Amino acid sequence: MKVTPSCVVALTWTLKDTLGTTLDELQDPIEFLVGGADLLDQIELALQGHVAGDEMELHLEPEHAFGDYDEQLLFLEPRNAFPAELEAGMAFEGLPVGCSPHAPRKQLFFVSEIYPEHVVMDGNHPLAGIALRIDLNIHHVREASAEEIGRGTLGAGFFKLDL
Q1: What topology is assigned to 7-66+129-151 in CATH?
Q2: What local confidence, expressed as pLDDT, does residue 163 receive?
Q3: pTM higher than 0.90 for the full model?
């Protein structure tokens, strides 16, 4: 079966930046809904017409991947507004009470830096502003069920962080 809209494709990949540094490697195939919310548009477009066993190399500029880095999504917030157990990389849906009222409410924020009195919160995707090279392997393709199409996702949201 060829990859078409509203099908399910099982992929593995190696994700690198333009310097060749490996950012992520998926060795066990994960299923994604093509035509849903699981994959970036450019990846879906590149997959069209391919079959199980195909391999491809993609180069995505930031505007076709996770967007340009937006400094307006950086917020310096009081440390005491966050839990005692806080680590860089932790994610929060919206900022806690006591933080900037101008921050988008339905934004996923990541802890960027932690200082004794402040925390830097970043609303950008961790890969924003980075051009990517993706080596994709298609392991299998199948028709999506009506339920999967209705949900619009298989829940494997690596490529999108929608709330």
Answers
A1: Chitinase A; domain 3 (3.10.50)
A2: 39
A3: no
